[in-house]
Specification:
Layout lengths: L11 H7 L1 H56 L2 E3 L2 H7 L2 E4 L1 E16 L5 E4 L5 E6 L6 E2 L4 E7 L5 E5 L4 E6 L6 E2 L5 E4 L3 E8 L1 H4 L7 E6 L2 E12 L7 E8 L10 E18 L4 E3 L2 E8 L2 E6 L1 E5 L3 E6 L6 E5 L1 H16 L1
Antiparallel strand pairs: 1-19, 2-22, 3-12, 3-16, 4-11, 5-7, 5-10, 6-9, 7-8, 9-11, 12-15, 13-14, 13-16, 14-15, 16-21, 17-18, 18-19, 20-21
GO molecular function: transition metal ion binding
Keywords: Transport
Protein name: Efflux RND transporter periplasmic adaptor subunit
């Protein structure tokens, strides 16, 4: 059986093109694809722009971060402390300037009283002690009553009075005791004391009467002069340098150990800072200079030193305000800040 060719389907494209509904569908589909392509292109463009903005933001952030780093670097070695807080923690400042530095030799010794400052009190006539007023540790004035004695021969009472002002350091008298020529009281004056310093043979040629000596007795600091040089006695191999010092405030006592620095030379310098002000930061020696509420570490080159000051060769001008006490607190604050920044 033969099939007629007229019943065969015509090409698909031709049938669709001749059908209005199909043609409309194809056009609509193409329009959808076209719009989709445009959307994708715009989306890609927006994505590139967004990425570019993020890159710029990242660069700006990096730039800001670098700026902070530069700011931190600018502030390295500095600490901000308000004046009230500085006063509370004991930060003290002074101004740099000229100083006289001293070359010294170190000696040791003790404080003692001079023979003329101690009086031993006896009874004028033998007899019986009838009353005693003075006691050990009591401070008396010249003429104060110490005791009364009834004389053996006359049976009359007479008074024993303090010959000098000072402190009663010994007492050997009680009521009812018989007196002879024994010492009843010993009185010493401590208004002035003497430092007796040992001068060994290696130091002998550098020490002379009249030289200044800086004494340290505990926390007390005293400046005086050598008044005597004498043998130590008992065939000891050293001399004794004696220097007088005032004790008006009774802050010193006989027997105390004394450290003496005898000045053998001195020299003037244009700029000096206190030894206690020097700190080491980052391997460099320097001081903290005050600018308002900011303290900045300034490295120095120092030269000659004595016990109190160091000569400044370079790094600091005269009349610069710098920290002299408790500068270690500022150093600790800076080191803490730098450690936190590294982490």
């Amino acid at each position: 059986m033969k099939t007629s060719n007229k019943h065969l389907a015509k090409p698909f494209s031709k049938n669709l093109l001749k059908s209005p509904p199909a043609l409309a569908f194809i056009l609509a589909l193409l329009l959808v694809f076209f719009v989709a392509d445009i959307y994708k292109a715009n989306a890609a463009t927006d994505s590139d722009d967004h990425q570019h903005q993020e890159d710029e933001h990242t660069e700006e952030s990096g730039s800001h971060g670098h700026g902070n780093d530069e700011k931190h670097e600018d502030e390295e070695g500095t600490s901000q402390i308000e004046d009230a807080m500085a006063q509370t923690v004991g930060i003290v400042t002074e101004r740099s300037g000229e100083q006289t530095l001293h070359q010294t030799i170190l000696t040791y010794g003790r404080l003692t009283t001079a023979p003329e400052q101690t009086s031993h009190v006896r009874a004028r006539f033998s007899g019986v002690v009838t009353s005693v007023r003075g006691t050990i540790g009591e401070t008396v004035a010249a003429g104060d009553l110490l005791a009364e004695v009834e004389a053996n021969e006359s049976l009359r009472k007479y008074s024993i009075r303090a010959p000098i002002a000072g402190m009663i350091v010994q007492r050997h008298a009680n009521s009812g005791e018989v007196t002879g020529d024994q010492i009843l009281f010993s009185i010493s004056s401590f208004d002035n004391l003497w430092a007796e310093l040992r001068i060994f043979p290696s130091q002998r040629s550098s020490v002379a009467i009249g030289q200044e000596v800086f004494l340290s007795i505990g926390e007390q600091k005293v400046k005086t002069k050598i008044e005597h040089l004498l043998p130590a006695g008992d065939e000891q191999p050293y001399l004794i340098a004696r220097a007088k010092l005032s004790n008006d405030l009774s802050m010193l006592s006989p027997g105390s150990m004394a450290e003496g620095r005898i000045v053998i030379d001195e020299f003037n310098v244009d700029v000096a800072v206190k030894i206690d002000a020097l700190q080491i930061l980052g391997g460099r020696t320097g001081v903290f200079v005050k600018h308002g509420n900011k303290y900045e570490f300034i490295p120095l080159i120092v030269g000659r030193k004595d016990d109190s000051y160091a000569e400044v060769i370079s790094g600091l001008k005269p009349d610069t305000e710098y920290v002299t006490q408790n500068s270690y607190l500022i150093k600790a604050d800076i080191e803490k800040s730098e450690a936190e920044h590294e982490h």
